Every structure is written in C-alpha cells, then in structure tokens.
Please model this.
Amino acid sequence: MVGLLSPLLHRGYNFVWYSTLPFASIKPNPLLDYELKRHGFGYATISGQIPSGLKTFISQIGFVFPACLSLAAMCCLCASAPISRTLNTSPLITVAFYLAVGYSIFVNLYYVLLPIHSVGSQINSPEWDTVRVTMLSSDDIVLTKYTIGLLRVWKATAIETGIRTFVAIPLLLATVFISLYTRDLRTVPFTWLSFAFPVFVFVLEPFWRTRAVAALGIAIAAQFTNATYAILAAFGAVVAFLITLAAILIGVLRVVDQLAYRTKILYDNRALVQLVVFLGGTFVLYAFYKLIAIVSLRRASALIARSE
Model:
C-alpha cells in the first residue's frame, strides 16, 4: 500500500510545493551564478532549495508567526465569548480577509514591475551585450532572469502567504468545531470540502500566481525597451490578469452553485460533487497560472533570440 501511495504523494508534493520554488525550472549555468552573487544570494545551490536566509523568512513570516498570532488572537477572543459566537461575529476574520485580498491585488504590481526594472535596465545597458555573446541560449537567459526575479519578490510572496495563513487558522478551527459538534455525521465531508480544503489552496495560491506574474514582467521587459511604455503595459497586463482571474473564480463558484445546490438529483451526493468541482477548479486555476508563465517566457525568449 505504501509503495502504491508513494508515487502519488511525490507527485502531489511536486504539484503543491516543489513546482513553486524559484529553482524548479532551471539548470545551473555561469550567468545564474553571477546573478546570484550580484543580488546578494551568495552561493545558493541548484538542488530545489532556496537560500537558507530566504527559506527561514518564508517559513517564519509565511507560516509559523502568523499561525501563532492567529491562534493567540482566537484564544483572547474566545476567553470572553464561546468559540461559535467568536467565529461567527468577530470582525477580525473579515478585516484580515479583506486585507489579504487587497494586499494580493496591489502586490501583483510589485511582482511585475520588479522584473521589468531589473531586466529592462540591463537590456538598455552595455552589460546586455556581454550577456548576449555568452554560449547560453535565449531560453537559458530568460530562465535565469526569471529565477532571479522570483527570488527578489519571494519575501513579498511570503508576507502575502502569512496574511492568508492568519485568515486560514480561524477557518480551520471553525471546520474542526463544526465537525466535532455536528449531530449529522453526513455533513462532515461537506464541511471540510467547503472550508478546510479551499483554505489550503487559498494559502498556497500566491506562490503559483507569483510565478505567472513575474514571467509576465519578463515578457513585457523584453517587448518594450522604453521604461514608460513598459510600465504602462505592466499596469494594463495586471488589470487584464486580475479580470480574467476574477472571471475564472466566478465561473467556478457558479458551477458549484448549480451542481451542489440547485440540482436536486445530486443534492444527496453534494460532498462528492463539491470534491469534483473543487479539484476541477483548482486544476483550472493552476493551469491558468502555468499557461501565463509558459507563454510569457516563450515570448520573452523569442524576442531576445530575434534581437541577437
């Protein structure tokens, strides 16, 4: 049994975490070593690991500290009111949720503008001629710039994940509380599918989105050598990206509404329907980010190869 589950767990790990790391899609090359030293990342290894200082920042700011802070806040609130009333009436969760959404919207501009500033300024400098005469292909150059861009914005991604972790802990507590005190055990799977599982995607989603938006910034930097045009294009690209993302999320919610609630035949099996729709929605979201990253990096590589 363990032998059968091991490949599935390994693939799940690659899908959820490893594929989001900055080093996941690049091989060692001299330009990468130079850029790592240039931006203060030292002699980071290319073994699926990020620099130790950045790794510590992500684990503490992205997960440990906000989780402890959220638990402490919930304990303080529950000391003066029952947990059920706290989870239903406390404005803390609502405020933190809107803070997470607002931060996610505006931080996308940082994700796209930093690669534009970094790559665009280098393209317009004599240093770019040195990069172009190396034996590296345009794909390797683009992936190197992309990896460095991800490393530079990763702390902002960790902060975004930390805010979401702060929001996620009360939702997980609510799921556990409802599951323990429910009188109808048939509602437990539906409760977990409605609250707990989406929370994990909610927390991990910034890592997927960062890769897509940073790749978009690389493509814009390769397309527009003029800084003003590049910035305007970045604003337009982020707005279009967010509108498309909102349309995808609304579409998934509509499917959930139609299948899980309005279809009488499937109402008794709504937990199964919820699982299928949730997994399908997660796949669509991940595929959308992956498609944006692939198309943007290929576009940037083609533009660089054409300029040589």
Remarks:
- Residues 78 and 86 are 6 Å apart (CA to CA).
- The mean pLDDT is 77.
- The radius of gyration is 22 Å.
- The longest helix spans residues 138-181.
